[in-house]
Amino acid sequence: MTEPEKKKQPQRLPPVFTFINAGLSGMAATCVVHPMDVIKNRIQVQQEKTSVGTVIKSIIKNEGIFRFYSGLSAGLVRQATYTTVRLGIYNQLQEYWKQRHTEKPNFGILSLMAGTAGSMGAFVGTPAEVALVRMTADGRLPKDQRRNYKNVFHAFSVIVRSEGITALWRGAVATMGRAVVVNISQLATYSQAKFFIASKLKMEDGIKLHFLASMLSGFLTTFNSMPFDIAKTRIQNLKSKGKPPGMLSVLASIIKTEGVPALWKGFLPTYCRIGPHTVLTLIINEQIVKLYRRYMMTEN
C-alpha cells in the first residue's frame, strides 16, 4: 500500500473507547434537554388536548421548577445503557466497514447498521425507559396514586417487587420498533446528510457540518418516530399487572378515540428534545473522537 493510501485509512478506534464515548455523549446531551422530556411525556400520557405552555405553567405552579428534572437519574441510566449500546455498535460497525472497504457505505447499509444497533440498544435500555416514563409523568397523577420513586434504582426495585421483573421490559417491542425507526432516521440520515453536504456544498468536516447534518436528522427522527413513541409511553405508564396491550392495538385505539393527528401529539416538545439531543450527542461524540485521535493515537 502506498503512503497516500495509508493516510486515507485512519487507525481503528478501540471498541471500549467507542462505547464509553457513546454513553458519555448521550448523558451530556440529556442533562441539557431533560426538561423537554418531562414536558413531552406529560403531554403524551394525557388523552385530552393540552399545550406546551399549559404543561409548563402547571408544573411550575403545582410542583415547582425542580420537577422539570424529575426522572433525570432514569434518563442518565437510559443513556448509559441505550445510547452506549446503540451508538457504540453503530460506530463500531462503521469502523469495521472502513477497515474492509474503500468506498463509503450506501444508505441501505447505513440503515441496516443503524436499525440493528438501535434494536439491540433499546432492549438493553427498556428498564430505564420504563422508569423514565413513570417518573416524568408521576407529577400529573393525584397524590394518592403517585408512585413516588426516589430514583431510578428505587423504581427498579418497586416495579420488580410489585409487578414482577418482566414489567421492566413492558413495551419492549414498541421501544425496539421505535428505536429501529429512530436510529435509521437519526444515525443513517446523519451519516448520509454529512456526506451529501460535505460533497455537494464543499463544506469541510467540522462543527458547522455536524450541526447542519444533525438538525436535519433530528427533524426526520422526530416525525418518523412519534407514533411509536406515543404508543410506547402509553404502554409503559400503565399500572396493570396483566399482559400489556400491543403496540398496534394502542395505535389503533389512539386513532379511533383521538384521531390521527394525536399520533404526533407533543411534536414541538419532542423535537425540542430530540433535535438538540441529536445535535449535542453527535457533535460531542465527533469532537471526542477528534481529540482522541489527535492526542491518544499516533498514525504509523
- Strand fraction equals under 5%
Low-confidence region ranges? 1-7
The coarse silhouette is globular
Count of DSSP-assigned helices: 10
Report the average pLDDT across residues. 88
User: What is the CA-based Rg, rounded?
Assistant: 20 Å
Structural class: mainly alpha
**String of helices and strands:** HHHHHHHHHH
Number of beta strands: 0
Give the biggest beta sheet: none
* N-to-C span: 13 Å
Estimate percent helicity: over 70%
Tags for this model:
300 residues; 10 helices; mainly alpha
How does this model look, in words?
With 300 residues, this protein is an all-alpha fold. Helix content is 74%, strand content 0%. It has helices spanning 3-8, 15-45, 52-62, 72-100, 107-137, 152-163, 172-200, 207-236, 247-258, 267-296. The longest helix has 31 residues, at 15-45.
Could you provide a short overview of the structure?
With 300 residues, this protein is mainly α. It has helices at residues 3-8, 15-45, 52-62, 72-100, 107-137, 152-163, 172-200, 207-236, 247-258, 267-296. It contains ten helices and no strands.
